[in-house]
Design goal:
eight-stranded mixed beta sheet; alpha+beta; about 30% helix; BirA Bifunctional Protein, domain 2; globular; five-stranded mixed barrel; 3 domains; Gyrase A, domain 2
Chain lengths: ~575, ~575
C-alpha cells in the first residue's frame, strides 16, 4: 500500500498513529540537526521530520532528496513544536521511520510555487509541471465542480445528456470548419462540429424535449488572445417552450451554480433589450455592477459652432463621480488612452464640476449655462467629471463602452466577488454586409424572428428586414457574455424565407441543411436553446479574465500545443492512405 | 404556455382539472361518433377524446390530423369509460376544448412503433424519426442514467473529471489515427485521440491522483459490424495504487452502476488468470454464468491410431448436459456449425452417454472403457453429450470457446437478467509477430510487466520475453469485455527497455512519446488505470448485443452517417486554405 492518508488529512487527533504517506518533495530544510521535508500531494502538504535520533538508513535516504522527488514515507504522527497556522495540517508532523524514494526528479525548469519563476512559454512546454502549482490545480478542481453541479441541476430537471457526433459534415457559414479526411471514402471529408446546433434541433424533432451536453466544439479561426481552436460548451435545448421558459430554466441553472460553487446568491436575473444596452452602455454585454450610463448629447451640444461636434453623427459621454480633481496630466493620459487604436476615439472632451465652477476643454464654444445643462443631463454634482466622445455612432458608442469600463476599473467599481447577471434580449436578427451585399444571420440561420416582427420578416424591404428583432438572448455577467441562444424557427416556410434572405440558393440550402429542413417536415415542435461557454464560465467563477488556466492542456495563440508539439508532420504512408497531398507553400 | 403537464403525468387524481398538453399524434381512431387521439411525448401517451358534443372548430381541427402532427390541446381531465391498464395514464382521457396544430407532418416513411416496419437503412436515414420509437428512447435514457451514476460515484470518491484535448498528435502504433490538417501550419496535422492515454498519464505526473472522463475517442479502422469510428469510453487513472486498489475501486463502480441502474446486486468480482481462462474457456473473456468447462484430452485420446487426434497439437472438448438424445440430424447440423469459416473447425467428434451405453462417432478407435475414461474427465453422467474438437491449439481453443457459448445459448444457460462479472488478470505483456519479426505490446507500450517478471523483462531472451506477464486486467461480464487497463510503467529505464523490445529506435521513441518520457524525468508516481467501453457498457445494461441503438447518431458499417450524408466533398477554397490536394483515385 502506498498510503494510508493523503497529505492534506492529518490533524492533532491523529497524533501517535502510525501512517504511510506518498507525494512529492516540495522543500527540504535543515535546521541544526533537524531536517524538515514538506511532502505535497493534490490534497495538501504535510511536514516530515528527521533528526539525529532517526535511523541511519532514513537519514541517508533523506540526504538524497531533491525538489519533486516522489517518496513514500512511514512514520508516527507527532504534535509540532512550532505550529503553522497557515495550513490545515500545520499542527502535526511525521517522524520518519522509513522513507522510500519511488522516483527521482531532475531539477524542474521553474519553481512549483503559487508564484512561479517560469515564463508563460516555459510553463506551457512543461504543462505537466505547471499543473502541479496550486492556482492551476484549484482552477481545474473548480472546473470539475462546475461541471458536476451543472449536471446535477439539469438531471434533476429531467434534462437528458445525449452525446452528438464529432465526425459530422462541413457546412461552411460563419467560422471555418476543421475537417478530417476519410480514408475509406476517396476525396471526402468529415468536419468537426462548431457546435451541436443541428443535432440538438434534430433531437427536439425526435421528441427529446430537454437535452443538454457538456461538449467539445471546434472552430478554425485566426486565433486571438484567449481563443482556443477547441473549446467546451454547456449546450442545451428545450421543446414546447417560449423564451421565458428558457430564461427561467437557465437563470435557475446560473443561480444554482453560483450558490453551490461560490456560495453567491442573486435574485432573478434582470432583462435589458439590446437597444437599451447599446444606448446606455455602448455595447451588448454591459457590466451593470455600476451605473455611469452613457448619455447622448447631440441635441445639447450641436449648433454651437464647435466643428468637431457639429460634424459628428453621435456625441455622447459618461459622468465619472468624484473625478473633478483629475489633473491636466491625468486628463492627457486619458486622452491618449481613448486614442489608442483598440479604442479609436479622435479625442476627449471633459467637463470638470469643481468648487470654483464648471471647467471644460471646450469653454470657448459653450457658456457655463450650456455646460451646466450638459452636467444636468448626467445628474452630475460638484466634484464630478464628464467625459465626452464624438464621431460615427457605432464606433463612438464602442469607445464610450470601453472608457466606461476603464473608469469603472479606476474607481474600483468593478468589484471582485460581486456578480451582476443580466439577460440581454431582442437582438437584431440580421446584419447587412456591404462588401458581399448580403445579410448575415447575427446569431445563426435557425434563429426565429420575434413573433411581432414576423410579418416584416416574411415580406419586408431591406430596411424593414434590418429592423427585425431576433427571439434571441444572451446571458451576461459583469460585462462578459457567458452564454447565448434563441428560440428557433420550427416552420419550414419561415426557414425557407431565412435561407432566401441570406441569399442561399435552394440547392445550396438543400445540400447544407437539407437533413434539418427535411426533418422539419415530420412534425417539428416549437423549441429553443442556449449554449454557455464553459471555459469562460469557469474563469468567471475563478475570478480570472483568462480561460487558459481553466483548461488542462490549452493551445497557444498559434493553435499549437507546445508540450506535445502538435500539429506536426505525418508519415507519407498516412497521406497516401488518405489520398491527400500537401500543396506547395504559397 | 405550451403545456401544464406532460403526456405521462395525468392520473385519476387530476380528474376535472383543466390542463394543456403538447405532443405528437401517435394514432387517431374513430368509434361511432367518437374520435380518440393518442398524444405522445417523451414521458408517455395520453388519450384525447372528441365527440359530437364538442365544438365544431375542435372537430374540424381534429379532422385535419395525421400521424406525427404536433399539437397543443386544452381540455378537462375525465375518467375513462373503458380503462387501459397497460399505460400509467390509462384511467383518464382529455376532453378537448381547444386544439391547435403546431406543425403538420408528412406521412413518416415507417411506423413509429416499438416494432417498426422500417428497414435498418431507412431508419438510419431518418434517424430523427427512429429516435421517437420507445426502444431507442429507452436506450438513450438508460445511457444518460449510466453516465450520471458513473459521475456521481467517481465524484464521491474524489475523482476529478478533467477534459483532455481532441486536437493532439499522431503517434501511429496500433490502429490508424484520424488526422486534421492545420490551416495555419503548412503541411502539418493534428490527430484525433484514440484514447486520452498519454494525457491521463501526464495528469498523474502532474499530481491529479484520481482522474476520470467520459470521453469520445476515434479510431480509423476498417469497420466491422458493431464498430464505430467514434466511440465513448469511461477513462480513468489513479496514482499511488497497486493493481488491487484499481480492481477494488472499479469493481465498486460496476457494483454501484448495476445496483443503481438495474437494481442488480453482485458480490465482489472474482478473478481469473488469462492462462486459466484460456485453458478452461478457450478465450480471455469467459461467460461464467454457466460451467461447461473445456478439458484438454491429449493424454487420453492420443496413441490409439486415430490419425486426426494423433496429428493434432491439441484435442479438447466440452460436456453438454442432457444432450445425449441429440439426433443424427442435430449432430450433423452442429458439425456444419463448427465447420463454418467463423469457427473454423475441421470436424466434430461426439460421445453420447445414453441409457444403452456410450456411443460415439469414433467407436472404432476407442473401447467403451476408453470412452468412459474420457467421460469421467468431464464428470459426465448418463444423458450427457461430449463434443470434441482437434487441431492447432489456439484455433481449436477458440472454436471450443464458440461452441461452448453456442451450446450455452441452446441450453438456455446464458440467462437474460443474470450477470456474472469477472476480472481477468495476468495477460501476456508482448505478442510476437512473425511477419514483421517484432514484438507488439498486447495492451499498449506503457503497460508494466508483473513485478515478479521484471528481471525477465529487463534482460530476457525472446522466449523469456514471450512468457512475461503484464500487470493488466480486463473487466468481463457475461462473455463481453467491458473494460481493461493496466498498471503503467513509471520508471524511465523500464520504459526505455519497452521501446527497445518493441523495436523503436531512440529517435523514433523520442519523436512519438518524448513528451511522456521526458515528463517521467520529473517525479512520476506509480500509477495505473482502466477504460470502459461506454457504448458497450450501456448495451449490456440494456440487454442488447448491438451498441448502435445506444448511440444517438451512429454511423453505418462504412463509417458513413447516412442521415447527414457525411463524409462529403468540401469546397475547393477550403482545400486551398488547408494547402491540401486530393490525390488521384488508385
Amino acid at each position: 500500500m502506498y498510503r494510508t492518508h493523503t497529505c492534506g488529512e492529518l490533524r492533532l487527533s491523529h497524533v501517535s498513529q502510525k501512517v504511510t504517506l506518498a507525494g512529492w518533495v516540495q522543500r527540504v530544510r535543515k535546521l541544526g540537526g533537524m531536517t524538515f521535508i514538506d511532502l505535497r500531494d493534490r490534497y495538501g502538504i504535510t511536514q516530515l521530520a528527521v533528526d539525529e535520533k532517526n535511523a541511519e538508513e532514513v537519514r541517508a535516504e533523506v540526504e538524497k532528496l531533491g525538489r519533486e522527488f516522489v517518496v513514500k514515507v512511514e512514520g508516527k504522527v507527532v504534535e509540532r513544536a512550532s505550529k503553522n497556522a497557515k495550513i490545515p495540517t500545520g499542527e502535526v508532523e511525521i517522524n520518519i521511520e522509513k522513507l522510500t524514494i519511488l522516483n527521482a526528479s531532475d531539477t524542474p525548469p521553474f519553481t512549483i510555487e503559487d508564484e512561479s519563476d517560469g515564463g508563460e512559454e516555459l510553463r506551457a512546454k512543461y504543462r505537466y509541471l505547471d499543473l502541479r502549482r496550486n492556482p492551476v490545480k484549484n482552477a481545474l478542481m473548480l472546473r470539475h465542480r462546475v461541471a458536476q453541479e451543472t449536471r446535477r441541476f439539469l438531471d434533476a430537471q429531467d434534462f437528458l445528456e445525449i452525446e452528438t457526433p464529432f465526425l459530422i459534415k462541413s457546412t461552411p457559414e460563419g467560422a471555418r470548419d476543421f475537417v478530417v479526411p476519410s480514408r475509406v471514402h476517396h476525396g471526402e471529408f468529415y468536419a468537426l462540429p462548431q457546435s451541436p446546433q443541428t443535432f440538438k434541433q434534430l433531437l427536439m424533432v425526435a421528441g427529446y424535449d430537454r437535452y443538454f451536453q457538456i461538449v467539445r466544439c471546434f472552430r478554425d479561426e485566426d486565433l486571438r488572445a484567449d481563443r482556443q481552436p477547441e473549446f467546451t460548451q454547456i449546450d442545451c435545448e428545450m421543446a414546447f417552450v417560449e423564451r421565458q421558459d428558457i430564461l427561467d430554466t437557465f437563470g435557475g441553472l446560473m443561480k444554482h451554480l453560483f450558490k453551490n460553487v461560490l456560495d453567491v446568491t442573486f435574485d432573478n436575473v434582470p432583462f435589458m433589450t439590446y437597444a437599451d444596452a447599446m444606448r446606455d452602455y455602448g455595447c451588448d454585454k454591459p457590466d451593470i455592477r455600476f451605473g455611469m450610463k452613457i448619455k447622448e448629447l447631440n441635441q445639447l451640444v450641436q449648433g454651437k459652432n464647435f466643428a468637431v461636434f457639429d460634424s459628428a453623427a453621435y456625441i455622447g459621454g459618461i459622468c465619472a463621480e468624484g473625478c473633478a480633481d483629475y489633473t491636466r496630466k491625468q486628463l492627457d493620459e486619458l486622452t491618449e488612452w481613448v486614442k489608442r487604436p483598440q479604442i479609436g476615439a479622435k479625442g476627449l472632451v471633459y467637463i470638470r464640476l469643481t468648487a470654483e465652477g464648471v471647467k471644460s476643454s471646450v469653454d470657448k464654444f459653450y457658456t457655463p449655462e450650456e455646460l451646466q445643462k450638459i452636467a444636468a443631463e448626467f445628474g452630475a454634482k460638484q466634484g464630478d467629471l464628464i467625459l465626452i466622445l464624438a464621431g460615427a455612432k457605432k464606433q463612438t458608442l464602442n469607445a464610450l463602452c470601453e472608457l466606461r469600463l476603464e473608469m469603472g476599473n479606476r474607481l474600483g467599481l468593478r468589484k471582485r466577488g460581486e456578480f451582476a447577471p443580466l439577460w440581454v434580449i431582442d437582438f437584431p436578427l440580421l446584419e447587412w454586409d456591404d462588401e458581399t451585399q448580403r445579410f448575415y444571420a447575427m446569431h445563426h440561420p435557425f434563429t426565429s424572428p420575434q413573433p411581432e416582427d414576423m410579418a416584416k420578416f416574411m415580406s419586408g424591404t431591406k430596411e424593414e428586414l434590418e429592423a427585425v428583432r431576433a427571439n434571441a438572448y444572451d446571458f451576461v455577467m459583469n460585462g462578459v457574455e457567458l452564454g447565448g441562444g434563441s428560440i428557433r424557427i420550427f416552420d419550414a416556410k419561415i426557414q425557407q424565407q431565412m435561407f432566401k434572405v441570406l441569399g442561399f440558393s435552394a440547392e445550396d440550402a438543400e445540400s447544407r441543411f437539407g437533413f434539418l429542413t427535411n426533418a422539419f417536415k415530420f412534425g417539428a415542435p416549437p423549441h429553443g436553446g442556449i449554449a454557455f461557454g464553459f471555459d469562460r464560465l469557469c474563469a468567471m467563477f475563478g475570478g480570472s479574465d483568462s480561460i487558459r488556466d481553466y483548461i488542462a492542456f490549452p493551445k497557444n495563440n498559434a493553435g499549437r500545443d507546445v508540450m506535445i508539439d502538435s500539429p506536426s508532420q505525418i508519415d507519407d504512408t498516412q497521406l497516401k492512405e488518405l489520398s491527400i497531398e500537401i500543396a506547395k507553400e504559397k
